[in-house]
Amino acid sequence: MKKILPLTHGLRGEIEIPGDKSISHRAIILSSLSNSHVEVSNFLAAADCMSTVKCMKALGAKIRQSGEKLLITGQTLHEPENVLDADNSGTTLRLLMGLLAPQKFLTTFTGDTSLRKRPMARVIQPLTQMGASIVGRNSNKNLPITILPNKKNLRGITYQMPVASAQVKSAILLAGLFAETPTTVIEPAPSRNHTEKMLEAFGVQLEKSGNAIKIFPTNKLIAPDRIFVPCDISSAAYWIVLATVLKNSNIIIRDVGINPTRTGILDVLKNMGAKIELLNERTSGGELSADINVVPSKLRGVEIGGEIIPRLIDEIPILAVAAAFAEGTTIIRDVSELKVKESDRLAAIVDEFNKISPETFTATDDSLIIRGGRKKIFAECKTHSDHRMAMSLSIFGAAAEGVAFDNADCVKISYPNFFDAFR
Ligand code: S3P
C-alpha cells in the first residue's frame, strides 16, 4: 500500500513533468518509417511509449535511447518474428494496427489484462472496409488480434467515426498513408490532432475541412532531423489541480504542450475560478507550448459536455477531484468513453473517490455528478491498476486527509517519477 500524507504547507516552486505521451508515440512511429536519422528529445521514457519502441524494433526500426533522447533510424518494415505485445498501451496497439493493416506480412498482437478487455472493433471495422483482413477474439474482436498479410493494396475510404477517438482516427490515417487512393475520416468532435500535425511535419499532404481530414497516400516520408516533445499537459494537470486547491501554493511548470485539442482542462478549471496563467507561448515542431503558473483560488461547480469532452478525456479523474473541492455541483456529461479506458474510470471514480469524500460522486450511464464541498476523510482505496486513478487519488489525498492505495507502481505507464514531488 502506498500512503500519501496531507500536504499542509502548499505546493511551491518549479515542477518538472515528463514529455507528452501521445506525441512521443507518434514521434517513434513516424520516425521509424523514414529512411533518415531522427533525434527525439524530451521523449517520454515511460512504460506505454517503451511498448511502442519495443514493437517498432520488432518490425525492423533501429532505435537507441540516450538519456531522455531517442535516436531513430527508420527501415523498411518487416514481419515480426513473434507476437507483438502492446502491454497496457491502447495507443501502441491501435496506431500500429493502422500502420500494419496495409502490410504484406502477418502480425499478431496481444496485451495485458486491461488491454485485452478493451474494444478493438472500432479500429478493425474501418480498416476492414479499406480491404484489410483482421481477426480478433470473440464477437467484440478483443485481443489477441491477427492482421493477415495484405495481398492487394488498401483502398481509400470516407469514414464517419461514431466516437471521437484520436486512436481510431490515427489508425485510419496511418493505413491511409499506404492506400491506393486518398482517405477521409470525419470525427463527431475534434480529438487530439498530434498525428495530423506530425504527418505534416513529415511532408505528408493532408486537407482539413471542419471535422474532416483527408490524407493523400505517399511512400516517402521526409523526417525532420530533430523532434522536441513538449511536456505532457495530462501530467501537468495533477499539479495544476493540487496548486489550485491547496493554500499557500505557487507553482510554475515549464514547456507544457498547449495544443488546443488538449487544453479543455485549462478552460474548465478557469471557468471554475482557477488562477492559471500561460507565459512564454511558443511553437516548436508545429506544437504550441507555454510555461504555466498556478496559484490557489476558490472553485465553483460547472456543467460541461459535448465537444469539450475529447479535449479533456484523460483529465476527467483529476477534474472530478477539483470539483470535490468546489462550491456547488459539477456535472460532466457525455463521458461513456471513460468506461473503456485503462479501467472503467466512471465506476472507479465513484467507487474510490467516495471513500475520500463520502456521498460526493454519482454516475449515470454517461454522466458524472460531483457535489462539491463535502467532508473529506483518510481512506484506503484501489487504483484498479490505472495510472490516472493512482495519480488522481494521490492528489485527492494530499489535498485532503491523506490516502493509501494499492498498486502504486502503475504510474510508470505515463509518469514514472510522479511520487518524487511528494518527498
Ligand atoms: C490518445 C487518445 C485518447 C486518450 C489516450 C491517448 C492518443 O484515447 O484517452 O490516453 O494518444 O491518441 P481515444 O483515442 O480512445 O480517445
Describe this protein's structure.
With 423 residues, this protein is of the alpha/beta class. The chain contains twelve helices and 23 strands. The strands form six sheets. Strands 2-15-17-16 form a four-stranded mixed beta sheet. Strand 12 (206-209) and strand 13 form a beta hairpin. The longest helix has 13 residues, at 233-245. The chain is globular and about 60 Å long. The model has no long low-confidence stretch (mean pLDDT 97). The site of shikimate-3-phosphate has 11 residues, from helix 1 and helix 6.
Features:
binds shikimate-3-phosphate, globular, about 425 residues, alpha/beta
Q: What would you call the structural class?
A: alpha/beta
Bound molecules: shikimate-3-phosphate
The averaged pLDDT comes out at 97
How are the strands of the biggest sheet laid out side by side? Answer: 2-15-17-16
Oligomer: single chain
Could you say which overall geometry the principal axes of the C-alpha atoms support? globular
Strand percent estimate = 15-25%
Radius of gyration computed on alpha carbons: 21 Å
Write down how many β-strands occur, each being a DSSP E stretch of 2 or more residues. Answer: 23
Largest sheet: 4 strands, mixed
